[in-house]
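Co-fold these.
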Amino acid sequence: MPPTTRYDRDTIVEAAFELAKEGGFSAISTRAVAKRLGCSVAPIYQNFATVDDLLAAVVERVRAMSGELLAAQTGPDPFENMGKASLAFARDYPALFREMALEPNDYVAPHELIEDAMAPVMAGDPALAGWSDAARRRLFLKMRVFQLGLSAMVANGHLPSWMDEKAVEELLMETGEEIAAGMMSTRKDEQE
Amino acid sequence: MPPTTRYDRDTIVEAAFELAKEGGFSAISTRAVAKRLGCSVAPIYQNFATVDDLLAAVVERVRAMSGELLAAQTGPDPFENMGKASLAFARDYPALFREMALEPNDYVAPHELIEDAMAPVMAGDPALAGWSDAARRRLFLKMRVFQLGLSAMVANGHLPSWMDEKAVEELLMETGEEIAAGMMSTRKDEQE
DNA sequence: CATGATAGATAACGTGCGTTAGGTATCGTA
DNA sequence: TACGATACCTAACGCACGTTATCTATCATG
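Predicted complex below.
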């Protein structure tokens, strides 16, 4: 019946993803995607009602990629895995990291939700045994803030030039431990 | 000779600044600025050769505003002043903060330069007496990272809803002290 | 082999952009 | 009062965008 499909949905999303990887979401336009695929805009409108629908599919594609980066971290410490995945995201996909983490949008869950999701993980961490729930949550917030700042500097190339990937990860881990140690030593755990 | 000027350079820059404050630099277009002023695009091209020149003037205006925010912090501790000024920037001008601090551009000086500028300040800080220069620089880097992350969360409204301005400033100060305390207690000061 | 469903191409629409050419109106001076 | 410098307006150019109407070409089925 119909001619064989040359540009299916996934192919289109992939082309748009590559454009966004290089120039952010604003680099996605019907004509730019078509040009990258070597076709006209017709296949795009056959698969997506509007360019916003295509953008939504690309965002979904980015989320999947982000999840893969996290899954690629197979160390024993979940916090370390999350931190390293964030740094990898910022390093390998700086434009996308900015779009997803440094712009106001609905892609980032509210901190409370993330915190609630991490609460049981922290409760099972032997390094945090004896900490109050409030203190654990406050530590998590601090580490998330530091991780975001470090990832932002990575994504924007604002870190000292001598810091390579390994040095950045070390800085993240080292500071995390120091914050925890600092919270322990200043003993404000319970009076928040 | 000529008719009296109704839209001078500063007026135009101010209008463009307000647009950028609300919608980022991309909200600055000749027609949008003209509409805000209630005039045509002619006065803009009388004062600026291109819209990029206007943008450069707006960036200068933003830098001045940022400097005023810093000058408004009159506490004794320069690091605390810088941190609070950064938070005020992110809170009061989130779109501009993103443009200036969370995008790759030439507006942010390389970290090494900032570090060199702060080195003498840190050297005179009694709280850091006995610290090696390398350790002081590393502490400064960590605090800058944390400050950036916290400011980014403020600018994007990603902080827990219960955190008001005061709570955010306390988090910044508290964590700064904890990092310093953690670095002290883990005693790695000298072997970087 | 003819048909019909449909993948894809083409070209046009309206909008907003930067920029510019040409016209109008003001206002101190001669 | 007439002049000239110039602040400002209007309208247009070319370009890129999202979107759509129309056309062409394919290809399994009858």
